[in-house]
Amino acid sequence: MSKKKSKKWSKRVTDNSDALDLDQGVFKQRSAKKIADSLKQSAEQSHRRMASPFQSAMSMLNFYINRAGDQLSKSRRTTLEKAKTELRKDFGREP
What we know:
By secondary structure, the chain is an all-alpha fold. The protein has a domain at 29-90. It has 4 helices and no strands. The protein is globular, with a radius of gyration of 14 Å. The termini are far apart. The model has no long low-confidence stretch (mean pLDDT 84).
């Protein structure tokens, strides 16, 4: 019996998104500021995004948080939530 391939569509979206070319391991960084800066840079450099750079970056961050769900540790989720705040600051948006 052959093994059935596990299809992780969310991983494909994160790795091969048409919206942003993300740096490898961007969501695994420990610093919320570094995550936000990397997302901002990716969003501003992308020519394929449909929305504004802020919307694209925030969407990708929210997508990652939502898809990871219960798999995220409390400290990891806290870091990613702080990255949202940093991303808003980077784009001059109020929370």
